[in-house]
Protein backbone atom coordinates (compact mmCIF):
# COMPACT_ATOMS: atom_id res chain seq x y z
CA UNK A 1 0.00 0.00 0.00
CA UNK A 2 2.75 2.43 0.93
CA UNK A 3 4.14 2.34 -2.59
CA UNK A 4 0.95 3.52 -4.24
CA UNK A 5 -0.11 7.11 -4.85
CA UNK A 6 -3.63 8.12 -5.74
CA UNK A 7 -3.49 11.02 -8.18
CA UNK A 8 -5.90 13.35 -9.94
CA UNK A 9 -6.27 16.79 -11.49
CA UNK A 10 -6.89 19.43 -8.81
CA UNK A 11 -10.46 20.40 -9.77
CA UNK A 12 -14.04 19.02 -9.99
CA UNK A 13 -14.07 16.32 -7.25
CA UNK A 14 -10.37 16.18 -6.40
CA UNK A 15 -10.76 17.24 -2.77
CA UNK A 16 -12.99 14.33 -1.80
CA UNK A 17 -10.96 11.91 -3.96
CA UNK A 18 -7.68 12.86 -2.27
CA UNK A 19 -9.17 13.13 1.22
CA UNK A 20 -10.79 9.73 0.77
CA UNK A 21 -7.49 8.26 -0.43
CA UNK A 22 -5.65 9.66 2.58
CA UNK A 23 -8.34 8.34 4.95
CA UNK A 24 -7.79 4.88 3.47
CA UNK A 25 -4.02 5.14 3.94
CA UNK A 26 -2.73 6.09 0.48
CA UNK A 27 -0.19 8.70 -0.53
CA UNK A 28 -1.82 11.46 -2.58
CA UNK A 29 -0.74 13.51 -5.57
CA UNK A 30 -2.51 16.45 -7.23
CA UNK A 31 -1.79 18.08 -10.60
CA UNK A 32 -2.69 21.70 -10.22
CA UNK A 33 -2.92 24.72 -12.53
CA UNK A 34 -0.49 27.44 -11.34
CA UNK A 35 -3.16 29.96 -10.48
CA UNK A 36 -4.96 27.55 -8.14
CA UNK A 37 -1.86 26.44 -6.25
CA UNK A 38 -2.39 28.70 -3.22
CA UNK A 39 -5.86 27.28 -2.69
CA UNK A 40 -4.91 23.62 -2.94
CA UNK A 41 -1.91 24.10 -0.61
CA UNK A 42 -4.43 24.51 2.23
CA UNK A 43 -5.20 20.80 2.40
CA UNK A 44 -3.04 18.55 4.55
CA UNK A 45 -4.29 15.40 2.90
CA UNK A 46 -2.51 16.36 -0.35
CA UNK A 47 1.02 14.95 0.00
CA UNK A 48 2.41 16.28 -3.26
CA UNK A 49 1.26 19.08 -5.51
CA UNK A 50 2.67 19.26 -9.03
CA UNK A 51 1.93 22.59 -10.71
CA UNK A 52 1.23 22.92 -14.43
CA UNK A 53 0.77 25.83 -16.83
CA UNK A 54 -2.19 23.99 -18.32
CA UNK A 55 -3.62 20.48 -18.00
CA UNK A 56 -2.12 19.27 -21.26
CA UNK A 57 1.35 19.59 -19.72
CA UNK A 58 0.48 16.27 -18.08
CA UNK A 59 1.63 14.64 -21.31
CA UNK A 60 5.19 15.71 -20.54
CA UNK A 61 5.02 14.09 -17.10
CA UNK A 62 3.86 10.70 -18.28
CA UNK A 63 7.27 9.13 -18.73
CA UNK A 64 8.36 10.14 -15.26
CA UNK A 65 5.17 9.36 -13.40
CA UNK A 66 3.09 6.87 -15.32
CA UNK A 67 4.36 3.80 -13.54
CA UNK A 68 2.08 1.26 -11.98
CA UNK A 69 2.36 2.90 -8.57
CA UNK A 70 0.53 6.07 -9.58
CA UNK A 71 -3.21 5.45 -9.92
CA UNK A 72 -5.10 8.25 -11.62
CA UNK A 73 -8.75 8.88 -10.75
CA UNK A 74 -10.54 10.44 -13.76
CA UNK A 75 -13.32 12.99 -13.20
CA UNK A 76 -15.29 15.58 -15.18
CA UNK A 77 -12.26 17.75 -15.97
CA UNK A 78 -10.58 14.78 -17.69
CA UNK A 79 -13.50 14.57 -20.13
CA UNK A 80 -13.88 18.36 -20.49
CA UNK A 81 -10.22 19.45 -20.76
CA UNK A 82 -7.97 16.49 -21.57
CA UNK A 83 -10.25 14.99 -24.18
CA UNK A 84 -10.72 11.57 -25.66
CA UNK A 85 -7.33 11.21 -27.38
CA UNK A 86 -5.45 11.91 -24.18
CA UNK A 87 -7.64 9.57 -22.15
CA UNK A 88 -7.29 6.78 -24.70
CA UNK A 89 -3.55 7.07 -25.25
CA UNK A 90 -2.19 8.06 -21.86
CA UNK A 91 0.18 5.69 -20.12
CA UNK A 92 -1.25 6.66 -16.76
CA UNK A 93 -3.20 3.86 -15.13
CA UNK A 94 -6.81 4.94 -14.54
CA UNK A 95 -9.22 3.55 -11.99
CA UNK A 96 -12.15 2.64 -14.24
CA UNK A 97 -12.54 1.77 -17.90
CA UNK A 98 -10.98 4.25 -20.35
CA UNK A 99 -13.35 2.97 -23.06
CA UNK A 100 -16.46 4.21 -21.28
CA UNK A 101 -14.96 7.70 -20.93
CA UNK A 102 -14.81 7.78 -24.69
CA UNK A 103 -18.46 6.77 -24.91
CA UNK A 104 -19.38 9.56 -22.51
CA UNK A 105 -17.62 12.11 -24.74
CA UNK A 106 -19.66 11.15 -27.83
CA UNK A 107 -23.41 11.87 -27.87
CA UNK A 108 -24.23 9.20 -30.43
CA UNK A 109 -22.31 6.45 -28.65
CA UNK A 110 -23.91 7.51 -25.36
CA UNK A 111 -27.38 7.21 -26.84
CA UNK A 112 -26.51 3.79 -28.21
CA UNK A 113 -25.30 2.61 -24.81
CA UNK A 114 -28.41 3.90 -23.00
CA UNK A 115 -30.70 2.47 -25.69
CA UNK A 116 -29.07 -0.93 -25.57
CA UNK A 117 -29.57 -1.00 -21.80
CA UNK A 118 -33.31 -0.72 -22.41
CA UNK A 119 -33.60 2.62 -20.60
CA UNK A 120 -36.35 5.05 -21.57
CA UNK A 121 -34.94 8.04 -23.46
CA UNK A 122 -36.63 11.22 -24.75
CA UNK A 123 -37.46 10.94 -28.47
CA UNK A 124 -34.86 12.24 -30.90
CA UNK A 125 -36.07 13.92 -34.10
CA UNK A 126 -33.87 13.38 -37.14
CA UNK A 127 -35.42 16.30 -39.02
CA UNK A 128 -37.20 19.49 -37.87
CA UNK A 129 -40.02 18.46 -40.22
CA UNK A 130 -40.99 15.55 -37.97
CA UNK A 131 -41.27 17.64 -34.81
CA UNK A 132 -44.75 17.43 -33.25
CA UNK A 133 -44.15 18.59 -29.66
CA UNK A 134 -41.92 20.94 -27.59
CA UNK A 135 -38.23 20.21 -28.08
CA UNK A 136 -34.83 21.09 -26.65
CA UNK A 137 -32.03 21.61 -29.16
CA UNK A 138 -28.57 20.59 -28.03
CA UNK A 139 -25.75 21.98 -30.12
CA UNK A 140 -22.75 19.68 -30.39
CA UNK A 141 -19.77 20.91 -28.46
CA UNK A 142 -21.99 22.93 -26.12
CA UNK A 143 -20.50 22.68 -22.64
CA UNK A 144 -22.69 21.95 -19.66
CA UNK A 145 -25.90 23.00 -21.39
CA UNK A 146 -24.70 26.43 -22.47
CA UNK A 147 -26.03 27.08 -25.98
CA UNK A 148 -29.09 24.83 -25.70
CA UNK A 149 -32.44 26.32 -26.68
CA UNK A 150 -36.11 25.39 -26.52
CA UNK A 151 -38.80 25.50 -29.20
CA UNK A 152 -42.47 25.00 -28.43
CA UNK A 153 -43.36 23.65 -31.89
CA UNK A 154 -42.15 22.94 -35.42
CA UNK A 155 -42.65 26.50 -36.74
CA UNK A 156 -40.72 28.12 -33.89
CA UNK A 157 -37.98 25.53 -34.20
CA UNK A 158 -37.52 26.16 -37.92
CA UNK A 159 -37.42 29.92 -37.39
CA UNK A 160 -34.82 29.59 -34.63
CA UNK A 161 -32.61 27.22 -36.59
CA UNK A 162 -32.63 29.72 -39.45
CA UNK A 163 -31.93 32.70 -37.19
CA UNK A 164 -29.05 30.92 -35.49
CA UNK A 165 -27.80 29.65 -38.86
CA UNK A 166 -27.25 26.18 -37.44
CA UNK A 167 -26.20 23.59 -39.99
CA UNK A 168 -27.83 20.14 -39.97
CA UNK A 169 -25.66 17.56 -38.24
CA UNK A 170 -24.35 20.12 -35.72
CA UNK A 171 -27.16 19.68 -33.21
CA UNK A 172 -29.58 17.20 -31.71
CA UNK A 173 -33.34 17.80 -31.52
CA UNK A 174 -34.81 16.08 -28.49
CA UNK A 175 -38.32 15.86 -27.06
CA UNK A 176 -38.60 18.28 -24.11
CA UNK A 177 -39.69 16.32 -21.04
CA UNK A 178 -41.75 18.18 -18.48
CA UNK A 179 -40.73 16.88 -15.09
CA UNK A 180 -37.87 17.37 -12.66
CA UNK A 181 -34.19 16.72 -13.20
CA UNK A 182 -32.76 14.04 -10.90
CA UNK A 183 -29.14 12.88 -11.03
CA UNK A 184 -28.60 9.39 -9.70
CA UNK A 185 -25.11 8.48 -8.48
CA UNK A 186 -23.99 4.85 -8.49
CA UNK A 187 -20.90 2.79 -7.71
CA UNK A 188 -20.41 -0.64 -9.25
CA UNK A 189 -17.72 -2.83 -7.72
CA UNK A 190 -15.92 -4.97 -10.28
CA UNK A 191 -14.48 -6.96 -7.36
CA UNK A 192 -17.67 -7.89 -5.50
CA UNK A 193 -19.93 -7.39 -8.57
CA UNK A 194 -22.32 -5.37 -6.45
CA UNK A 195 -24.04 -2.13 -7.37
CA UNK A 196 -24.56 0.64 -4.82
CA UNK A 197 -26.72 3.77 -5.07
CA UNK A 198 -24.39 6.32 -3.50
CA UNK A 199 -26.45 9.50 -3.67
CA UNK A 200 -28.93 11.65 -5.57
CA UNK A 201 -28.70 15.34 -6.46
CA UNK A 202 -30.00 18.06 -8.72
CA UNK A 203 -28.09 20.90 -10.29
CA UNK A 204 -28.38 24.61 -9.66
CA UNK A 205 -28.17 26.02 -13.16
CA UNK A 206 -27.71 29.57 -14.39
CA UNK A 207 -29.91 30.94 -15.81
CA UNK A 208 -32.76 28.42 -15.86
CA UNK A 209 -33.00 28.36 -12.09
CA UNK A 210 -32.91 32.15 -12.01
CA UNK A 211 -35.62 32.79 -14.59
CA UNK A 212 -38.43 32.03 -12.14
CA UNK A 213 -37.19 34.92 -10.00
CA UNK A 214 -38.04 37.40 -12.74
CA UNK A 215 -41.58 38.78 -12.74
CA UNK A 216 -43.54 37.57 -15.78
CA UNK A 217 -43.52 41.04 -17.29
CA UNK A 218 -39.68 41.07 -17.36
CA UNK A 219 -39.61 37.61 -18.85
CA UNK A 220 -41.91 38.67 -21.67
CA UNK A 221 -39.87 41.81 -22.39
CA UNK A 222 -36.39 40.34 -22.04
CA UNK A 223 -37.16 37.01 -23.75
CA UNK A 224 -34.25 35.35 -21.93
CA UNK A 225 -32.83 32.16 -23.50
CA UNK A 226 -32.55 29.38 -20.93
CA UNK A 227 -28.96 28.48 -20.14
CA UNK A 228 -28.02 25.39 -18.16
CA UNK A 229 -24.51 26.23 -16.94
CA UNK A 230 -23.93 24.41 -13.66
CA UNK A 231 -23.09 26.59 -10.67
CA UNK A 232 -23.68 24.10 -7.86
CA UNK A 233 -25.79 21.16 -6.69
CA UNK A 234 -28.60 20.44 -4.24
CA UNK A 235 -29.13 17.18 -2.35
CA UNK A 236 -32.23 15.08 -3.04
CA UNK A 237 -33.71 12.04 -1.40
CA UNK A 238 -36.12 10.12 -3.57
CA UNK A 239 -39.38 8.47 -2.68
CA UNK A 240 -38.32 5.09 -1.37
CA UNK A 241 -40.70 3.44 -3.83
CA UNK A 242 -38.55 4.77 -6.69
CA UNK A 243 -35.37 3.15 -5.38
CA UNK A 244 -35.90 -0.42 -6.65
CA UNK A 245 -36.54 0.91 -10.15
CA UNK A 246 -33.47 3.15 -10.24
CA UNK A 247 -31.37 0.32 -8.83
CA UNK A 248 -32.57 -1.86 -11.68
CA UNK A 249 -31.69 0.89 -14.20
CA UNK A 250 -28.12 1.02 -12.87
CA UNK A 251 -27.88 -2.75 -13.14
CA UNK A 252 -29.11 -2.68 -16.74
CA UNK A 253 -26.50 -0.16 -17.83
CA UNK A 254 -23.71 -2.08 -16.10
CA UNK A 255 -24.79 -5.27 -17.87
CA UNK A 256 -25.17 -3.78 -21.33
CA UNK A 257 -21.90 -1.82 -21.08
CA UNK A 258 -20.06 -5.15 -21.04
CA UNK A 259 -20.81 -5.38 -24.77
CA UNK A 260 -20.03 -1.82 -25.90
CA UNK A 261 -17.00 -1.42 -23.65
CA UNK A 262 -15.96 -5.07 -23.64
CA UNK A 263 -14.78 -6.91 -21.72
CA UNK A 264 -14.75 -4.92 -18.50
CA UNK A 265 -17.71 -2.62 -19.12
CA UNK A 266 -18.64 0.20 -16.80
CA UNK A 267 -17.45 -0.01 -13.19
CA UNK A 268 -16.60 2.36 -10.34
CA UNK A 269 -18.65 5.55 -9.96
CA UNK A 270 -21.11 6.72 -12.62
CA UNK A 271 -24.28 8.79 -12.86
CA UNK A 272 -27.54 8.62 -14.76
CA UNK A 273 -28.99 12.03 -15.50
CA UNK A 274 -32.75 11.69 -15.55
CA UNK A 275 -35.98 13.62 -15.74
CA UNK A 276 -38.83 12.16 -13.71
CA UNK A 277 -42.39 13.01 -14.70
CA UNK A 278 -45.52 13.30 -12.58
CA UNK A 279 -46.46 9.68 -13.30
CA UNK A 280 -42.98 8.55 -12.14
CA UNK A 281 -41.74 7.76 -15.63
CA UNK A 282 -37.96 8.05 -15.55
CA UNK A 283 -36.34 9.40 -18.74
CA UNK A 284 -32.57 9.14 -18.95
CA UNK A 285 -30.99 12.08 -20.76
CA UNK A 286 -27.31 11.39 -20.24
CA UNK A 287 -24.75 9.25 -18.52
CA UNK A 288 -21.49 10.26 -16.85
CA UNK A 289 -19.10 7.34 -16.76
CA UNK A 290 -16.95 8.53 -13.83
CA UNK A 291 -17.36 10.36 -10.53
CA UNK A 292 -19.76 13.34 -10.86
CA UNK A 293 -19.50 16.66 -9.03
CA UNK A 294 -22.88 16.17 -7.34
CA UNK A 295 -21.12 13.68 -5.05
CA UNK A 296 -19.29 16.67 -3.48
CA UNK A 297 -22.45 17.14 -1.44
CA UNK A 298 -21.75 13.96 0.43
CA UNK A 299 -18.15 14.12 1.63
CA UNK A 300 -19.42 13.00 5.02
CA UNK A 301 -21.66 10.38 3.45
CA UNK A 302 -25.10 10.52 1.84
CA UNK A 303 -28.32 9.08 3.26
CA UNK A 304 -27.78 6.09 0.98
CA UNK A 305 -24.11 5.59 1.92
CA UNK A 306 -25.14 5.76 5.58
CA UNK A 307 -27.28 2.69 5.01
CA UNK A 308 -24.35 0.73 3.60
CA UNK A 309 -21.37 1.88 5.70
CA UNK A 310 -20.79 2.50 9.40
CA UNK A 311 -18.33 5.33 8.79
CA UNK A 312 -18.79 8.54 6.75
CA UNK A 313 -18.21 7.28 3.20
CA UNK A 314 -17.70 9.69 0.32
CA UNK A 315 -17.48 8.38 -3.23
CA UNK A 316 -13.83 9.46 -3.18
CA UNK A 317 -13.22 7.23 -0.18
CA UNK A 318 -15.25 4.41 -1.74
CA UNK A 319 -12.90 4.50 -4.75
CA UNK A 320 -9.82 4.34 -2.50
CA UNK A 321 -11.36 1.45 -0.58
CA UNK A 322 -11.96 -0.47 -3.80
CA UNK A 323 -8.33 0.05 -4.84
CA UNK A 324 -7.13 -1.05 -1.39
CA UNK A 325 -9.24 -4.16 -1.64
CA UNK A 326 -7.84 -4.92 -5.10
CA UNK A 327 -4.26 -4.55 -3.85
CA UNK A 328 -4.99 -6.93 -0.96
CA UNK A 329 -6.61 -9.47 -3.27
CA UNK A 330 -3.89 -9.00 -5.94
CA UNK A 331 -6.56 -8.01 -8.42
CA UNK A 332 -5.41 -4.55 -9.49
CA UNK A 333 -5.61 -5.63 -13.13
CA UNK A 334 -9.38 -6.01 -12.72
CA UNK A 335 -9.96 -2.36 -11.82
CA UNK A 336 -7.24 -0.47 -13.71
CA UNK A 337 -7.04 0.27 -17.45
P1 LIG B 1 -14.69 22.35 -14.00
O1 LIG B 1 -13.32 21.77 -13.75
O2 LIG B 1 -15.38 22.92 -12.79
O3 LIG B 1 -14.70 23.35 -15.14
O4 LIG B 1 -15.61 21.14 -14.46
C1 LIG B 1 -15.28 20.17 -15.43
C2 LIG B 1 -16.55 19.64 -16.05
O5 LIG B 1 -17.43 19.11 -15.07
C3 LIG B 1 -17.37 20.70 -16.79
O6 LIG B 1 -17.86 20.08 -17.97
C4 LIG B 1 -18.49 21.07 -15.86
O7 LIG B 1 -19.64 21.44 -16.57
C5 LIG B 1 -18.69 19.78 -15.06
N1 LIG B 1 -19.04 20.13 -13.68
C6 LIG B 1 -18.26 20.82 -12.82
N2 LIG B 1 -18.85 21.01 -11.65
C7 LIG B 1 -20.06 20.45 -11.76
C8 LIG B 1 -21.17 20.30 -10.86
N3 LIG B 1 -21.13 20.81 -9.63
N4 LIG B 1 -22.24 19.61 -11.29
C9 LIG B 1 -22.27 19.12 -12.53
N5 LIG B 1 -21.29 19.22 -13.42
C10 LIG B 1 -20.19 19.88 -13.06
P1 LIG C 1 -27.41 17.92 -20.29
O1 LIG C 1 -26.33 18.75 -20.96
O2 LIG C 1 -27.98 16.89 -21.22
O3 LIG C 1 -26.98 17.39 -18.96
O4 LIG C 1 -28.62 18.91 -20.02
C1 LIG C 1 -28.51 20.11 -19.29
C2 LIG C 1 -29.86 20.46 -18.69
O5 LIG C 1 -30.84 20.59 -19.72
C3 LIG C 1 -30.39 19.37 -17.76
O6 LIG C 1 -29.97 19.56 -16.44
C4 LIG C 1 -31.89 19.53 -17.89
O7 LIG C 1 -32.36 20.49 -16.96
C5 LIG C 1 -32.10 20.08 -19.28
N1 LIG C 1 -32.52 19.04 -20.25
C6 LIG C 1 -31.71 18.29 -21.04
N2 LIG C 1 -32.44 17.46 -21.82
C7 LIG C 1 -33.74 17.68 -21.54
C8 LIG C 1 -34.97 17.14 -22.03
N3 LIG C 1 -35.01 16.19 -22.98
N4 LIG C 1 -36.13 17.63 -21.51
C9 LIG C 1 -36.09 18.60 -20.55
N5 LIG C 1 -34.97 19.16 -20.06
C10 LIG C 1 -33.79 18.71 -20.53
Describe this structure in words.
With 337 residues, the chain is α/β, with parallel strands linked by helices. The protein has three domains: 5-94, Rossmann fold; 104-120 and 179-206 and 230-328, ATP-grasp fold, B domain (D-amino Acid Aminotransferase, Chain A, domain 1, 2-Layer Sandwich), CATH 3.30.470; 124-175, 2-Layer Sandwich (Dna Ligase, domain 1), CATH 3.30.1490.20. It is built from 13 helices and 14 strands. It has helices at residues 14-23, 37-40, 58-65, 76-89, 98-104, 107-116, 154-163, 208-211, 216-222, 243-260, 303-308, 315-328, 332-335; strands at 5-9, 27-33, 48-52, 70-72, 93-94, 124-125, 135-139, 149-151, 171-175, 180-188, 195-207, 228-235, 268-276, 282-288. It has a five-stranded parallel beta sheet with strand order 3-2-1-4-5. A five-stranded antiparallel beta sheet has the order 12-11-10-13-14. It has a four-stranded antiparallel beta sheet with strand order 6-9-7-8. Helix 4 links the parallel strand 4 (70-72) and strand 5 (93-94). Helix 1 packs across helix 12 (315-328) and helix 4 (76-89) crosses helix 5 (98-104). It is globular. The two termini are 19 Å apart. The model has no long low-confidence stretch (mean pLDDT 94). The structure holds adenosine monophosphate (2 copies). One adenosine monophosphate (AMP) binds at residues 11-12, 76-77, 80, 143-144, 203, 230, 232-233, 293-294.
Amino acid sequence: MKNFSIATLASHTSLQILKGAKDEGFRTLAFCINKNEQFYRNFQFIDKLVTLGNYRELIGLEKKLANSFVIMIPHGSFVAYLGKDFNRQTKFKYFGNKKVLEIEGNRLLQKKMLDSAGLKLPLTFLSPNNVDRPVIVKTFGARGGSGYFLAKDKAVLKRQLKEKQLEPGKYLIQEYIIGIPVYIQYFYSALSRKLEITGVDRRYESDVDGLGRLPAEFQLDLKPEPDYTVIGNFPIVLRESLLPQIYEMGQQIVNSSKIMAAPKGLFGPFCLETIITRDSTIYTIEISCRIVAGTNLYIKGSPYMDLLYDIPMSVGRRIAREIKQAIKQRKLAVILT
